[in-house]
């Protein structure tokens, strides 16, 4: 298949026109007329995943996060991001990014997160057109369970990270109706309150918004690593391409952990604080 054929499938699933205005999605480098026999899907286009693509013989890297989100005047090889572009081109590999257009799609990033956790999705958290699309998802567990157990469920469903999973709220409070948002989601805390859910799963929650949310009676919060929250999307995107091309294109999901944190430590001396 030609790269242009793969791009057509991706842009049908994740229309570029639905991306946020500030976003940078689409083809970063590569010739649409070149042949593609293998695709590597990842969250982050980093030196690790580009190396993996080269090692595994992929002609296309499909990444969730943009490589060049901010405007640049050039991509010299002695610049970290420029070096990735040069390495991709020298090895005959293209880079395509689907970011906020994949977040809001149906299915999208938050559908993949909800499915991994075991939720039955009932609709978007922030609806958009066409119906069913939008940012975040609301779903339900088959049976309610305490927050303590629900946090463990989330941890078991996602790849391990140094951060792990942390929760705010009554550990024994029952959780059944849940909102999720892959990636940084604290901008949706007000929407979560209005949604009438028992818990909200997202990434990159900050101290003050989280504290104020809980103090004001908002639903429980479950905070996970940004990369881990979006990694389930990789298999979703891979399945879209496999369904479109069958065995004509080999679609792989990256095995590289691109979460930036590498060391975690827990204090053993609390200094008398309670």
Automatic annotation (TrEMBL):
<dbReference type="InterPro" id="IPR036069">
    <property type="entry name" value="DUF34/NIF3_sf"/>
</dbReference>
<comment type="similarity">
    <text>Belongs to the GTP cyclohydrolase I type 2/NIF3 family.</text>
</comment>
<protein>
    <recommendedName>
        <fullName>GTP cyclohydrolase 1 type 2 homolog</fullName>
    </recommendedName>
</protein>
<keyword id="KW-0479">Metal-binding</keyword>
<comment type="subunit">
    <text>Homohexamer.</text>
</comment>
<dbReference type="InterPro" id="IPR002678">
    <property type="entry name" value="DUF34/NIF3"/>
</dbReference>
<dbReference type="Pfam" id="PF01784">
    <property type="entry name" value="DUF34_NIF3"/>
</dbReference>
């Amino acid at each position: 298949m030609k790269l242009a054929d793969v791009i057509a499938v991706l842009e049908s699933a994740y229309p570029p026109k639905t991306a946020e205005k500030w976003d940078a999605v689409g083809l970063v480098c590569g010739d649409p007329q070149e042949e593609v026999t293998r695709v590597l899907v990842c969250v982050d286009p980093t030196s690790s995943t580009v190396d993996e693509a080269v090692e595994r013989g992929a002609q296309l890297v499909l990444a969730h996060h943009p490589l060049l989100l901010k405007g640049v005047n050039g991509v010299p090889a002695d610049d970290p991001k420029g070096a990735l572009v040069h390495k991709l081109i020298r090895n005959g590999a293209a880079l395509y990014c689907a970011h906020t257009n994949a977040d809001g799609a149906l299915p999208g990033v938050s559908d993949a997160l909800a499915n991994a956790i075991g939720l039955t999705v009932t609709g978007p958290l922030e609806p958009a057109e066409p119906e069913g699309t939008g940012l975040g998802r609301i779903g339900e567990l088959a049976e309610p369970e305490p927050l303590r157990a629900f946090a463990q469920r989330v941890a078991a469903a996602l790849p391990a990270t140094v951060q792990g999973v942390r929760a705010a709220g009554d550990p024994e409070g029952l959780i059944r109706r849940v909102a999720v948002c892959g990636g940084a989601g604290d901008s949706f805390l007000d929407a979560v309150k209005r949604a009438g859910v028992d818990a909200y799963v997202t990434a990159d929650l900050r101290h003050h918004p989280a504290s104020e949310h809980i103090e004001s009676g908002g639903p429980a919060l479950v905070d996970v690593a940004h990369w881990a929250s979006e990694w389930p999307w990789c298999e979703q995107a891979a399945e879209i391409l496999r369904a479109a091309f069958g065995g004509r294109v080999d679609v792989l999901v990256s095995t590289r952990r691109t979460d930036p944190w590498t060391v975690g430590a827990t204090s053993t001396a609390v200094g008398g604080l309670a």
